[in-house]
TrEMBL record:
Alphabetical list of CDD domains matching this protein: DUF820-like
Pfam families, sorted: Uma2
Organism this protein belongs to: Desulfosporosinus youngiae DSM 17734
Lineage: Bacteria, Bacillati, Bacillota, Clostridia, Eubacteriales
Protein name (record): Putative restriction endonuclease domain-containing protein
Domain (Putative restriction endonuclease): residue spans on this chain: 15-187
């Protein structure tokens, strides 16, 4: 999981997020800031390939796709000022269909679809922490992409407000997007053919 930033004992908010140095990516989870690791080339390539397919499909439609860095302030509904937001994520890919949720800083509210691309340091963060927050907030569709195994786990929000068992897809398959039934993402065009290994 990304490491929490050393800090005095206090609750950080979206106001602190806005004041953070621009060359550092940070998320705030329940008032605790977490510094994000710089994405690898594979991570960036996968993000670009997914974003491109989604962007082409959404051209001319009301829904929009945003790639990181892009802030998402998960709202509980009673926040009035920046100081009231204590959950700020930077998903790898975010799709928002309600234009009223978009402002100059990012998304204020619940996105319709979020994709996270995991790295060795973010597995617990994406699979547990973010999973629980996205589920509780009501994000309809949540994907976890695993570059090393070339797998995608798709979680859909059920009528009981919980994510069901994931559908798992491999690099040879296409995924029909739940919120866009006429969009099928081709995973063979998503994963790099050769993963760069560290020396």
């Amino acid at each position: 999981m990304p490491m929490p930033v050393p800090q005095e004992e206090r609750q950080y908010t979206y106001a602190d997020y806005l004041a953070w140095p621009e060359d550092e990516r940070v998320e705030i989870i329940d008032g605790v800031p977490y510094l994000q690791v710089t994405p690898s080339p594979e991570h960036q390539e996968i993000s670009m390939n997914l974003s491109t397919q989604i962007s082409v499909y959404l051209k001319g439609k009301s829904c929009k796709v945003y790639a990181a860095p892009f802030s998402v302030r998960l709202t509980k509904g009673d926040e009035k000022k920046d100081e009231d937001f204590k959950i700020v994520f930077e998903p790898d890919i975010t799709v928002v269909c309600d234009k009223s949720k978009i402002d100059k800083q990012g998304c204020k509210g619940i996105p319709d679809w979020i994709i996270e691309i995991i790295s060795p340091t973010s597995i617990k963060h994406d699979r547990i922490t973010k999973f629980n927050h996205y589920e509780k907030a009501g994000v309809v569709e949540y994907w976890i992409v695993e570059p090393e195994g070339k797998l995608v786990s798709v979680f859909l929000l059920q009528s009981n407000g919980r994510y069901g068992r994931p559908e798992i897809y491999t690099e040879e398959e296409k995924i029909t997007v739940s919120i866009f039934p006429d969009l099928a993402l081709d995973l063979s065009a998503v994963f790099p053919s050769i993963l760069i290994t560290e020396l």
